[in-house]
Design a protein that fits this description.
It is globular and about 70 Å long. Helix 6 crosses helix 8, helix 6 runs antiparallel to helix 12 and helix 9 runs parallel beside helix 11. A 4-stranded parallel beta sheet has the order 2-1-3-4, sandwiched between helices. Strands 6-5-7-8 form a 4-stranded parallel beta sheet, sandwiched between helices. Helix 5 links the parallel strand 3 and strand 4. It folds into 2 domains: 193 residues, Rossmann fold; 134 residues, Rossmann fold (3-Layer(aba) Sandwich), CATH 3.40.50. It is of the alpha/beta class. The mean pLDDT is 93. The protein is built from 13 helices and 8 strands. One of its GO terms (biological process) is heme biosynthetic process. It catalyses: heme b + 2 H(+) = protoporphyrin IX + Fe(2+); Fe-coproporphyrin III + 2 H(+) = coproporphyrin III + Fe(2+). Pfam families: Ferrochelatase (PF00762).
């Protein structure tokens, strides 16, 4: 087995710590080809689809990719912004703001960067860059509050697969979940209250989480329970009675049974039952994306109104909400305990000298060329 080539090391270089905010991923552009490449990488992950590989390869490559890529591309096109994919834009902004929030707390020797599990910037690419920047301690911070083998564990797989080929590994800390963390619940609470203060309050609050196959729950995945705990804590913080909120699961795919109740049929039934206004929030997504902006704010809204509902209000994800960035910083900080993340005057001087050496080398290389 061959290992990756190690970057040049200069004695006296300040060893740094880093936080890597990892989200699911997104196509590079809303085109059939880009979406096909993204879906192939995503749906080829055995963590995402637990079907015998040969059978799934045939289904994926002969049925799903040829027919679904074009439809998905149109959906991505409907939510695409001038800046690009909403999920990527929000995740990058979160990483930038998180870096600032942690810096204000004194962590000035800390790098905070964004990576995607599927698509770009890829985890291996980002982890290689951190190694070149002398980051010897790395916290992996998933953008998923609730743990699932289909999401968080897949990030772990990618991290470990990358470092299996690295000779000089960094210290690693992996954040498993924060579904019940006070800062996360507080941020959700503040988001809902702010929305209600501006737009009034609906008859019910529907909390829609991303769905997964029911068999994952039966096999021991804690995702279902963690979603319900988030919902219960948020409802309690908002002082909602049991009949004032409902928990559902969206994004069902295929013919197998997934976690229930399903979002779309529940919204239709609520409308038929006489609920005229519904407020919908997606607590499991920390950044708005295809599943929230198109599936919920567009498709689910249409389902509710078509069934007789009068008003459908979507409450945006936490995105760059100041309350969430402060909460996110607190979560990250707890996983940095014991690691040096603040520069001493001597380290700042060493960092300055290291930068000067780097500039001199760059100039020398330029002269040689």
């Amino acid at each position: 087995m061959s290992f990756r080539k190690e970057p040049p090391f200069i004695h006296g270089t300040v060893a740094r710590s880093a936080v890597v905010l990892v989200n699911l991923g997104t196509p590079d552009e809303p085109t059939r080809g880009a979406v096909r490449r993204y879906l192939k990488e995503f749906l080829s992950d055995p963590r995402v689809v637990e079907i015998p590989r040969l059978v799934w390869w045939l289904i994926l490559n002969l049925i799903i990719l040829p027919f679904r890529s074009g439809k998905s591309a149109k959906k991505y096109e409907s939510i695409w912004t001038r800046e690009g994919s909403p999920l990527k834009v929000h995740t990058q902004k979160q990483a930038t703001l998180l870096r600032g929030a942690l810096g204000e707390r004194g962590h000035d020797a800390l790098r905070v960067v964004m990576a995607m599990r599927y698509g770009s910037p890829s985890l291996p690419e980002v982890l290689d860059k951190l190694k070149a920047e002398h980051c010897e301690r790395v916290v992996i911070l998933p953008a998923y509050p609730q743990y699932s083998g289909t999401t968080t564990a897949s990030i772990y797989d990618a991290v470990f697969a990358h470092y299996a080929k690295v000779r000089n590994m960094p210290e690693l800390r992996m954040v498993k979940h924060y579904h019940d963390h006070d800062s996360y619940i507080d941020a959700l609470h503040d988001s809902v209250l702010a929305f209600w203060e501006t737009n009034g309050r609906g008859q019910k609050l529907l909390m829609s989480f991303h769905g997964v196959p029911k068999r994952t729950l039966l096999l021991g995945d804690p995702y279902h329970c963690e979603c319900y705990k988030t919902a219960r804590l948020l409802a309690a913080k908002l002082r909602l009675k049991p009949d004032q909120y409902v928990v559902t699961f969206q994004s069902r795919f295929g013919k197998a049974e997934w976690l229930q109740p399903y979002t779309a049929p529940t919204l239709q039934q609520l409308a038929r039952d006489g609920i005229e206004r519904i407020d919908v929030i997606c607590p499991g997504f920390t950044s708005d994306c295809l599943e929230t902006l198109e599936e919920i704010a567009m498709e689910a809204k249409h389902d509710f109104l078509a069934a007789g509902g009068k008003q459908f209000h979507y409450i945006a994800c936490l995105n760059e909400d100041p309350s969430w960035i402060a909460g996110f910083a607190e979560i990250a900080e707890q996983h940095l305990i014991g690691w040096p993340t603040m520069m001493t005057p001597a380290q700042r001087e060493a960092e300055k000298k290291d930068a000067e050496i780097g500039r001199e080398r760059a100039l020398a290389l330029g002269a040689e060329r």
